[in-house]
Design goal:
single chain; alpha+beta; Mago nashi protein; 2 domains; 10 strands
């Protein structure tokens, strides 16, 4: 009888622990409608995703007093792209620098990731200017041509825009080295 009470008490404690854990997991679960995980990053989920007809993306970075990469990338909806590498464009800090004009066809995966990200963040409704308030920092300019005659221009001093824009900037920086660029 004593053994039976001990076993029942242990089962009761285990059940309470399981119930408590289940409640904790429920409280900690992520609302799957809030985040989108299509790519290797999280973006706020846009339930009513706009599919803008993006015709061209132009992204340009400026120099700074240090070694900030200075380049310009133009991507067309045909997947053709042009890279103008001006200064400090090397994969590693002391690696070989690329300079000049290059052409490539952006691979399907990267192209879709870039265009889908812009649509996910509803780019026409972003602010036109971002500024982190610091001096001597790199700036970038983004111009998106879409819907046959519309333009969205964003200038970002300090590359400090929204978290999604920062992801976009990172993708642009990576494009310099992850495509099959041919020097013109």
């Amino acid at each position: 009888m004593k053994m039976r009470k001990i076993i029942l008490t242990e089962i009761f404690v285990i059940l309470l622990t399981v119930i408590s854990l289940a409640q904790s997991i429920t409280r900690l679960s992520i609302d799957k409608n809030k985040f989108d995980t299509k790519a290797e990053y999280f973006t706020e989920f846009n339930k009513k995703q706009n599919m803008y007809n993006i015709e061209k993306i132009e992204y340009q970075t400026t120099k700074c007093f240090g070694t900030c990469p200075q380049f310009n990338i133009v991507i067309y909806k045909s997947k053709k792209a042009t890279l103008f590498a001006e200064a400090f464009n090397s994969k590693e800090k002391k690696g070989k620098e690329i300079k000049g004009k290059f052409n490539a066809a952006i691979n399907e995966r990267d192209f879709d990731e870039i265009f889908n990200l812009l649509n996910d963040i509803d780019f026409p409704n972003l602010k036109d200017k971002y500024n982190n308030g610091r001096k001597d920092t790199q700036a970038c300019f983004l111009m998106i041509s879409y819907e046959n005659s519309k333009f969205k221009r964003i200038s970002d001093y300090g590359l400090s825009g929204t978290p999604e824009l920062k992801i976009f900037y990172k993708l642009m920086f990576e494009l310099r080295f992850n495509q099959d660029w041919k020097k013109e």
